[in-house]
Amino acid sequence: MKKILGITFASLLFSLPVVAGQIARIDVVGNQRMDSESVRILSGVQVGDNIGLSKTNQIAKKLQESGYFSKINVYVSDDVLKIRVTEAPLVNMVTVEGNDEISTDDLKKEIKTKERTSYDESVIGADVQRMLTLYQRKGYFGTKIEPQKIELDGNRVNVVYEISEGHPTWITDIDFRGNKHFSNRTLRGEILSRQHAWWRFMTQFDTFDEDRIQYDAQMLRQFYLRNGYVNFAVKDIQGTFTPDRQYYSVIFTVDEGDKYKIGKLSVDNPFDDVPTEDLLDVIVMDTGDIYNIDDVEETMSLLRSKVADFGYAFINVEPVPTKNDDKHTIDLEFKIQKTNRIYLNTINILGNVRTFDTVIEHLLPMRSGDPFSLQTIEEGRQKLMRTRYFKEVQMVPTRVADSNMMNLDVKVEEQPTGELSGGFGWSNINGFMIDAGITENNFMGRGQIVQLRGSVAEYQKQVLFSFTEPYLFGRSLSAGVDVSYTMYDYSSLGSFGYDRDSLTVSGRMGWRLTDNWTQNIRLSAAFDQNYDIQATGGWQEANLYTLGTSFRYHNLDTNFEQNTHTGVVANLGLSYTGFGGTESYMRYSGDIIGMVKFWDDRWQLRSSLDFGYIQPLDGDYVSRVYRYFLGGESLRGFDVAGVGSRNWAYATYALGGLWKINGSTQLNFPIFIPDQYQIKGFVFMDYGVLGKPPADEDYYPQYMRGDPKYKNYIDDLVRTSAGVGVYWNTPMGPMNFSWGWPLRMTEYDREQRFLLSFETQF
Asked: For the chain, is the Cβ count within 10 Å smaller at the N or the C terminus?
C-alpha cells in the first residue's frame, strides 16, 4: 500500500507546472523568412526574465496574434526558452472570379488580404463577410463566396475568391395597412422601392435593400407631412423572404392621424433695421392652406436668405408650432435668433493651379468689406461653375474670432478646359453632320477662349476661328475676333431654295452694365456668293458691311444636377447694314425666355418669344437669303422654311418675310426612368407669324393676269402647332425627339410631324 502511494505521489510531482525561473537563452526554431531576432522581439521576452507555464502561454498567444505563424510551440527546457514556429504561407496573388454585378476593383477595396503578406484564415473570413455585405446592398442575398487556397512552392499560396452571384432578391409585393386616405398604389409611388417587373431592367430599386426600406419609411412620413398629416407614424415594417431568399415582400403598417391646416402665421423679428413686412412677404403659405413640411422648410430658408441680405449671417430660424387639436390647425411662429451684422474680411482663393486669381476675382460679385450675404455668395459660386473651368466650387465662410468679420475661402477644383473633339449628329436643318475642332476655354489660365473648328453636313459646311479676351486691359471688358467660311447648300432643303457661300470677318466688344445686363457691339464684313433658284443670273456677289449692338439680360437660378432653371434670359439687338455694300437695311431683333423649375426642381416650365424686323433703306430690295423663315425647330410640326408666302413661279419655295414673331411654351417633366439616366418628357405648343416679303415678290407677267392657274399666296397669318417629345442627355450627347401636329395652317404650308436632333462629342 505504501509503495503504491509513493508512485502516485511521484507522478503528481512530475506533472506539476515548471516553477518559474530565469531564462539564460532564447532559441528560435523553424523560422525561414523571418530572422530569429525579430521573432524574439515579437515574443516580448528577454534573457533574464522569469518564465512559468502561464507566461509561455502568453508568449504563444502574442506570436499567434502577429499573423506571421500558423503553428507555435513555446516551452522551457532547463534555463532555455525554446520557441518552435511554423511560418504562415506568403500570399503570392489575390484574385476574384465569377463576379459580374460588382466590378473587381470595387470588390478588391473590401479585401484586406494583400500580396506579400502572411496568409491568415481570420482575415480571409472577414474579407468574405465584407464582400457579401456589398452584394447584399445590391440585393444579391443568395450570393456565395468560397475562398480557395492554392499552394505553391516556397511556402507561398494564391488566394482565389470564387463567387456565385445567383440573381438578386427581388421585391415581389409592397403593401400597406392602416392607410385610409391614400391608396396602396399612391403610397407605392411615393417610396423609392418598387415591385419587380421585367421592364424595370434599368433600375435596381426592385431589389431588396434593408437601408432603402428604412429610407422608404422616412419618405412616407415626408409625404404625409406634405399633405397635412402631422401625427403620421410608421408603426411596423414586416418583411418576409422566401426560403431560398430570392424573393421578398414587405408590409408597412401606418397610423395616418388627422389632417391639419395652417392657422396663424407670424415672425418674431429681433432686428430693428429689417422690415417685418419684408419677412412676412417671403412666407410661402397662407392661413387655411394644408400644412406642408416642404413649405415650412422653404420659408425657413427664404427667411435666412432675406435677413442675410441685410448683413446678418448665420442666423437660426426656428418654427414654433402650436397645435389646435379641436380645430385641426397649426399656428406657426418663425422665431429668428438675433445676431450682429457681419462683414467680409478677406477672400482667399484656394485650389487653383492654372487659373489666375484675377480671373476668379473678376467673376466674384463680392469684395472685402462688403456686408456678408449668402445670396451674393451663391451667385458667385454659380458664376464660377458656369465658366466650366472648375469641376467643383465650394464657398466656405469662417467666422473671425471675437469680431463681426467673416473670412471666405473660395475652394475650386480645376478641370481640363481644352478640348480636342469630334462629333457627329443629325438634325432636320443640317442633315447628317460630322465636325471636329480644338477649343481652349481658359487659354494660359487667363480665361481667354480660342477655338478652331470645322464641320461638314449634308446641307452646310463651315470652318471657324474665334478668339475672345474676357478681361481687356484688366477690366470687365471682353473683346474678340471671329473669322468663318460657311457654305449653305439649301437649294434642296425644305422650302429654302437657295445656296450661299459666305466669308465673314468680325470684331466685337462687350461690357457689363449691371449684374444682369451686358452690352455688345459688333462690326462685321461678309463677302457672299448667292445662288437663288427664284432669281435670274446664276451666282451673284453680295458684300454686307454691318455695325450692330445688342443688349443681354441674364438672371437664372440653376440646379446643375437636374439641369433646370428659374429666371429670365433676354436679348435685344439692332444693326445697320450698308456702308456701300450691296444690301442696305436696318435689322431689329429680340428674344426672351422665361423658365420656372418646381417640384424638387425636376419639372420645368419654359416659355419663349422671338421677334425680328428688317427695314429696307431707301426702298432697297432685300434679297431672299437674308429674310426670315419659320419652320422646323423654330415652329415644330412644320417643315424647315415650311410656312409663309409663295408665288406662282416657284410655289415649292417660301419667299420669306421681312418680319417674324414666333414663340413656344414647353413643360419638361420626369418620366418613370430614374433621374440618373437624364431622360425627360415634354409637351409643347408653338406659334408663329411670318411677315410678308417685299412688294416686288407679288407680281404676275402681263399675259398671266386673270388666269386662275397662276396665283400668288402672300400672307401674314398666324400658325400654331402642338406636340410631345422626349429629351435624352445620352453619354455621347443630347438627343431630342419630338412629334408636332399643326393646329392652324394653310393649304400651301409644308408639314413635318417628326423632328430629331442629335449631336455627340468624342
From this structure: N
DSSP three-state, residue 701: coil
What cell does 90 get? 506568403
Distance, in Å, from the CA atom of 213 to the CA atom of 193, rounded to the nearest integer, reads 7
pTM, to two decimals: 0.54
Residue 266 sits at the vertex; the CA angle it makes with 262 and 270, to the nearest 5 degrees, is: 155
Three-state secondary structure string covering 99-133:
CCCCCHHHHHCCCCCCCCCECCHHHHHHHHHHHHH
The C-alpha cell of 320 is what?
414654433
d(CA 619, CA 627): 15
| Contact of 557 with 529, CB cutoff 8 Å | no
Indicate left, alpha or beta for 245 from its phi (over 0: left) and psi (-120 to 50: alpha). Answer: left
- Helix intervals (H) in 566-624: none
Half-sphere exposure of 742 (CA within 13 A, CB side): 21
The H-assigned helical ranges of 591-700 are: none
Dist. CA 465–CA 481, nearest whole Å: 8
CA dist 556 to 295, 359, 386, Å? 22, 21, 11
Q: Is 618 exposed, middle or buried (0-12, 13-18, 19+ CB in 10 A)?
A: exposed
DSSP assignments along 73-90, one per residue: EEEEETTEEEEEEEEPPE
Q: In this structure, are strands 751-752 and 637-638 parallel, antiparallel, or unpaired?
A: antiparallel
**Which of 557, 575, 663 lies closest to 614, judged by CA?**
575
Q: Report whether 138 contacts 146 (CB < 8 A).
A: no
Of the candidates 576, 634, 638, 586, the one whose C-alpha atom is nearest the C-alpha of residue 608 is 634
DSSP 542-559: EEEEEEEEEEEEEEEEEE
**Comparing C-alpha atoms, which of 569, 233, 217 is closest to residue 386?**
569
DSSP state of 97: E
Edge-to-edge strand order for the sheet containing 343-350? Answer: 343-350, 405-414, 390-399
232: closest CA among 144, 298, 291, 315?
Answer: 291
- Per residue in 724-754, pLDDT (tens digit) is 999 887 766 678 889 999 999 998 999 989 8
The angle subtended at Cα 456 by Cα 451 and Cα 459, nearest 5°, is 125
3 state SS of 22: strand
3-state SS of 129-178? Answer: HHHHHHHHHCCCCCCEEEEEEEEECCCEEEEEEEEECCCCCEEEEEEEEC
> 192: Cβ–Cβ under 8 A, 6 or more apart, which residues?
205, 212, 215, 216, 219
| 181 Cβ contact list (under 8 Å, min separation 6) | 229, 256, 259
Q: With contact defined as beta carbons under 8 Å apart, do 363 and 379 qualify?
A: no
Burial of 333 (0-12, 13-18, 19+ CB in 10 A): middle
Nearest residue to 149 (alpha-carbon basis) of 171, 173, 123, 169:
123
Residue 6, pLDDT > 50, answer no
End-to-end CA distance of the chain: 102
Banded pLDDT at 758 (limits 50, 70, 90): low
Is residue 623 within 8 A of residue 581, CB to CB? The reply is no
Closest CA to 682 of 727, 721, 722: 727
What is the three-class DSSP state of 13? helix
Tell me what the mean pLDDT of segment 368-372 comes to: 84
Three cell numbers, residue 15:
506533472
pLDDT of residue 251: 93
Reading the block at residue 489, the C-alpha cell is 447648300
* pLDDT at 463 (0 to 100): 95
Contact between 662 and 688 (Cβ < 8 Å): yes
Which grid coordinates are listed for 405? Answer: 468679420
Q: Is residue 354 predicted with pLDDT exceeding 80? A: yes
- Could you give the angle at the alpha carbon of 622 between the alpha carbons of 616 and 625, nearest 5°? 140
- Residue identified by cell 418669344 is 609
Are the CB atoms for 616 and 585 separated by under 8 Å? Answer: yes
**Residue 270 contacts residue 252 (beta carbons within 8 Å):** no
Type of residue at 217: A
